[in-house]
Amino acid sequence: MAENTCFVHEGPYPDDHSRQNHALRFLEHYAQKINSAEYSGSYLPYYHPDAVFHDATGVDYVGGEAIWTWIRGLFAPFEKIYMEGKHILVIAKPDGTHVIYCEWLAHFWLKGHQEDITIPRSMVFTLGRAEGDGEAIGFEGLQILDVRLYYDRSLLTPYLRRSEQEVEKFGH
Fold first, then answer.
1. pTM for the full model?
2. CA–CA distance, 18 with 150 (Å, rounded to integer)
3. Cβ neighbours, 10 Å, residue 112
């Protein structure tokens, strides 16, 4: 019987050590896109069509397209973003999925501002086999299937607009 395997990365990310891991190469590719604050194009290089993103607000975004639309709106006020990796644990499962537990410091620069807003974040990603129609499906055969995000979003509240899903769930 096949067993889970673990890969631990501590400190600066990405680096030569993290690039030894298939799932962390995908995460590096994804983080580069998020850090760019430029989200044109398809969600398919990153998110599975049936992916679910569990936001810290309690709202679940269902489907890669819905997640990508939400990300575009959520990060619109920012000129750039930098996800500073601190601790990462990857569990590779026999079924081909990878669960990544990340601890980050997220740095957000508002458009027209010099100083960043820094917020600790934890995220749990589940990656699996890439699927979808068209070109640029996944990265190295992987896409995000599920994400759980934990952070104190209230630190960014003055700068963010509420998504349609948040308004529907909480009002205003």
1. 0.91
2. 23
3. 7
